[in-house]
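Entry: C-1-tetrahydrofolate synthase, cytoplasmic
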Amino acid sequence: MSAQYQRFLKVLEKWPADKSKVGSGDFETKPTENMSVAKLISGTQVANEIRETLKRKVFDIQRDLPNFAPGLCIVQVGGREDSNVYIRMKIKAAKEIGIAAQHVQLPRTITEIELLDKINNLNNDPSVHGIIVQMPLDSDTKIDSHKVTDAVHPDKDVDGLHTMNEGRVSIGDLGGFMPCTPWGCIELIKRSGIQMAGARAVVLGRSKIVGTPASELLKWHNATVTVCHSKTKNIDEVCRTADILVVGIGVPEMVKGSWVKPGAVVIDCGINVKKDPTKKSGTRLVGDVDFEEAKLIASAITPVPGGVGPMTVAMLMENTVRSASRAAANLLKKVWDFAPLVLRPARPVPSDIVIARSQTPKDISMLAQEIGLLGNEVSLYGNKKAKISLNAINRLKARGDGAYVVVAGITPTPLGEGKSTTLIGLVQALTAHRQRNAVACLRQPSQGPTFGIKGGAAGGGYAQVIPMEEFNLHLTGDIHAVTAANNLLAAQLDTRIFHEKTQSDKALYDRLVPRIKGERKFSKIQLRRLQKLGINKTDPDALTPEEFGKFARLDIDPATIMWERVVDINDRYLRQITIGQSSTEKGFSRTASYSISVASEIMAVLALAKSLDDMKNRLANMVVAFDRKGGPVTADDLGATGALTVLLKDALEPNLMQTLEGTPVLVHAGPFANIAHGCSSIVADEIALKLVGDEGFVCTEAGFGSDIGMEKFCNIKCRSSGRKPNAMVLVATVRALKMHGGGAPVTPGAPLNKQYTEENLELLEKGLPNLLQHISNGNAFGLPVVVAINSHSHDTPAEHQLVKAAALKAGAYAAVVCSHWSDGGAGATELADAVIKACEKSSFKLLYGNEMPLLDKMNKIAQTMYGAAKVELTPTAQHDLEKLTKAGFGNLPICMSKTSGSLTGDAAIKGAPKGFTLTVNNMYVSAGAGFVVAMCGEISKMPGLPTRPSIYDIDLNTETGEIEGLF
């Protein structure tokens, strides 16, 4: 006979004859000297042990991510004092562990919609890993509590109350968040020493919070479970069958000793207030089990208080740390959970559009998830493109940065060398074939070339961005936003000149600072202008007449206006126009011009801005003209900064697309490479570098040859971002080198001369100096240069070998023949391997310092990058140089605007001539972008349409909705 059973019999002997009175209060069981009592399962002790373990886990996380902290947010509606007690308890426990806990107390007047919106904001906050909505809701309005608990994202539902988490528990998936009280019960049962597997368990109560999930957890720990509730018959008899009795019925001391099977483990989840005149407070806390009776029968029992209660809080902390651990693991993850798209290259290789349409892209939200973006960081534009929030940079700031690779070319020829195609092939090889995290960062193409003659810029063959129609047309409207912002500023500029010419100082001032409903005040931007002018007043009526005029008049000299209107199409007749010819303009006309939209300084600002705040400051600093005293007039002076920022706020977010093999591409910004710096955006690179992690690769493109795009990428973009590239990929073709060696002219669409279709080593060798100059350009920045020989069908092995040998002799780190155009990423695996190794060898350095005079900077670039002997300024350029230096722009980097078709300033000169003089015709400042432009020869910022533009071939099939004739 067991000791537990003997103890049970002794209790029975003392019971009254009328067993119905048991538990009525007429009988009190008191232990005798020979009686033993149940082992107390101290929830307080176990909870303390769990907290200590959690402290160590948080410490381990922060050892790898020093600035990372688990975040818990407790949302309370109203201010019930009992809720406040629980909240203080949770916050205290959280702080002891190292969890950053915040209490969000909302007013009783809050509506359901407002509460759900608040919860959604917390769902989208990456610093919050756990969300609790304290129940009950103390609100004046009706709020559906179930809807509220389900509004918390399942991945942050540390209470375990979301329907999805409940469902996981019900099917035995214990990898999600388990409800805290039942989970605490399971931990206490484990500590009791009883084996759950095979045991008979009875759960009193079927509540959503305790009873039902407790029964499911016991079931999945292999107990045989019975659930009792208010409709259960002979409930006491059922309870007496239990090896494990879990009680959460909500009735004080309902379960008596007679309900307990001798030797059972009793877990009391109840907490009730009972009157007790012996206590100073007049009350005491009791559970749903009559503790004094049950402890004489059970082998182990939890007390109230000090049992399940502390465990509920401990398991809440466990869930929060678990959630934070997942977030930290994602930050530290080295390799994406990435599934490439399969390529099936056809022979002969079809047209680009046929290839693009033969592949079914991934849903862009799936790709975003694969590369580690959160749902709230992705704004979908359909299902094949999306914008990426800059918040991703902040969330991932603790993560390491990937290697940074710039792809440039030799001096381009009319047929192109496949620079974009090589970039895409490289990232396809890195990600889909070498299992390395890699992102391609590309510029967005202008509609000018798309509808003109050049075509799109999505790559080509089996190395391109898809859907290529969306890539080349509109995308998400960024260029249109640049156009609108640019032309708004142009309109404000001319309008301001008009109003200053037609109004007195007082009238102008009164209109700039009007009295509205009896109140007159300066706007924020006007206060900045006052500060700039040294007028330390904030009351508009306090200015003197002299200060009226000083504030109101910009006194712009029309002869110095540098700001042009833009449009994103090729329209040669807008290169020079006359504006202001309407009679309403009172004869104030002037000669003006249009540029193509991507030539706008705003596009350069978009590409170089590091944040919304930085973009706003850059927009404010854009110089549109000079006043009659020689001082610069800015967009901020015109009052336009805020409006421009509003138009561009969404445009600053990079666009996510994919390659044919499903690898990620960030498409963003598209400044001209000859008159601006020709690179995609800094923010795209920053997001990409964090997404790939410290073992990944970000490959970005620099416009045209290394003398233009790569030089500006380093001296302008990297100077601005502070980034140091690890390697340079230099794209070359046998065909282009033959042309630089003196080969016959090439016209797009015309048959190739046999010099290019037959082996000709002599001609090829004559063109090699161009390649060697570009290798030297990369080495001048301390970059290891990997030459990618983009093969064509007419090339021969001997020609490839000649190029490889010459490249290595000239100091290239590696030279590789690539076939990505015909084979996709598989054709660029050798290139990928070379890039991986080359990135370990970088010792990047800028070409010149900011303090160097502007002329010296130009000479440094021309002599090092082009092979020139010197730079020569025209009288106009000399005057511009002096004016810009005097205005304080002498410490800015130089953006050399010259032809892309030659290392010299003359597009007709091929090869790599040395010792020539480069003439600078004029100079101007792009103060917002942060560089001074030196114009070397006539560079058109408004291309024209050819005799037969691509528009002849482009059409829309109205039956299928497909675009036809696009490449």
